[in-house]
Amino acid sequence: MNEFTQSIYMNLAQIPKGRIISYGQLAKLAGYPNHSRHVGKTLAKLPKDTTLPWHRVVNSQGRISLSGDSFYKQKERLEKEGIAICENGKIMNFKQVIMQ
């Protein structure tokens, strides 16, 4: 595992339940500002049985970026943590749940 991936995983693991972070914020937190697309690609390669909270990462507009079954899986997991989401994937209380 390379240093970038290791840093992303380590920081992702620390996002608390009921909170979210954007791809760009996670990249910056991991020490790689301006690498938000790489964060998305890295998360897409996670094993299906991962325990990392990948579902707590959304785009900078406060929307779920995934589609199909992955969209519904992320939406369901976030809702179980108390995060309200519109049908179009927009986080309703984005300003209150986003990590600063």
TrEMBL record:
Domain Methylated-DNA-[protein]-cysteine S-methyltransferase DNA binding: 3-83
The entry's keywords: DNA damage, Methyltransferase, Transferase
InterPro entries assigned to the protein according to its UniProt record, in alphabetical order: ATL_DNA_repair (IPR052520), MethylDNA_cys_MeTrfase_DNA-bd (IPR014048), MethylDNA_cys_MeTrfase_DNAb (IPR036217), WH-like_DNA-bd_sf (IPR036388)
Protein's GO biological process: DNA repair; methylation
One MF annotation (Gene Ontology) recorded for this entry: methylated-DNA-[protein]-cysteine S-methyltransferase activity
NCBIfam families linked to this entry: ogt
Protein name per UniProt: O6-methylguanine-DNA methyltransferase
